[in-house]
Amino acid sequence: MRTVVSGAAGFIGSHMCDRLLVEGHTVIGLDNLLTGSRRNTAHLENESRFRLLHQDITEHFDIEGPVDWVLNMASPASPKDYLENPIETLDVGSAGTRRMLELAREKGARFLLTSTSECYGDPLAHPQAETYWGNVNPVGPRSCYDESKRFAEALTMAYHRKFGLRTNIARIFNTYGPRMKLDDGRVVPAFLDQALRGEPMTIFGDGSQTRSFCYVSDLVDGLYRLLLSEERYPVNLGNPCELTILEFAQRIRQMTGSRSDITFLPLPEDDPKQRRPDISKARAVFGWEPKVPLDDGLRLTIEYFRDMHTVAA
Length: 313
Ligand code: UDP
Hints:
With 313 residues, the chain is α/β, with parallel strands linked by helices. It has nine helices and 13 strands. The longest helix is centred in the first third of the chain and has 22 residues, at 86-107.
């Protein structure tokens, strides 16, 4: 099996490459390193079945030889990153997805799009099932990401309908684990970094908004199973264990043994008030559900962030 992965130097992309290699694949990773890092695949340097190409998928590229799977995982994914790079985010979801779909079509390969729970916007339905069409502000600051992913889903379905391409779409909910970027602004790296430094933990709003956090190995397992399934419509992947951001801050404070204060800052525009995946479909279609409890996943993530701090110091 030969698999092309865009976003291979990213957080989830690099973990997916690891899993594919374990499954015996040869992996060609593509990344323009806008938000990804070579550090995430440094451990694969001597792996003969892995290659990382510095490639922007919105620009022309050729892959020689047969390809069995095409995994389109490239995009800025944290609010800070996509707000700083709105045009690049729109381009990678549209032009980038188009090139990856064309690659799959040319090679007769299976195609996976990693989409997002942001497709549901600030949801009015709770928990969110795949049948919910969402509540996205099409011109708000987050629209560059939300609409880019919604467009990518539409394009993927069009390639499936028009060319019979074998496609899968995963809607990924908040995921955490080692290799998250320390400064990507997301709540997990932000709180861990602040707690480990003893700096104030910054809660946006009053902390009553909710999120549900899935450990990265569970997520990758869901993606792999989805790829083996016949499901063409989007499938939610995430951990339904929901907590408020205030509870989350307190949990991290306690687990790191930190004495950080908690400070409250203004809530960003259009920040979703609640988010929890309904994963009935993933359970029914390919027997998937997350296995790693939040405390276990956080312990592993804290270890990674501690090591990163030691390296930086
Ligand atoms: N958040 C926070 N403090 C931070 C970073 C994020 O309170 O330093 C909040 C953010 O407002 C949101 C939640 O944590 O309600 C999750 O934010 P994140 O950026 O991780 O991802 P999102 O789920 O919004 O895409």
